[in-house]
Amino acid sequence: MVQAYILIQTEVGKASTVAEVIAKVPGVIQAEDVTGPYDVIVRAQAETVDALGRLVVAKVQQVDGITRTLTCPVVHL
C-alpha cells in the first residue's frame, strides 16, 4: 500500500467545498481545509504508485475549484 499527502491550492473561497468533495473519493483517508500556503491537505492511499498517480490525476485534480496540487508520497526509512 502506498500513501501520500496531497497539498492543494484552491480558488478563493472554495477550500471547504473542495475538502468535502475530495473526502468522498475512494482512496482518500482524510481531507482537511487548512490555513497557510495550501488550502486543503489530503491523505490518500492506493495499491501502487501508478494507482496513486491515477487517483490524483483522474479523481482529485478534476474537482472544481482546484488550481494546483503537490503530491508527497509517504516513505518509511
Automatic annotation (TrEMBL):
This is Lrp/AsnC ligand binding domain-containing protein. InterPro entries: Dimeric_a/b-barrel (IPR011008), Tscrpt_reg_AsnC/Lrp_C (IPR019887). Residues 6-74 form the Transcription regulator AsnC/Lrp ligand binding domain. Signal peptide: none annotated. Gene3D superfamilies: 3.30.70.920. Pfam families: AsnC_trans_reg.
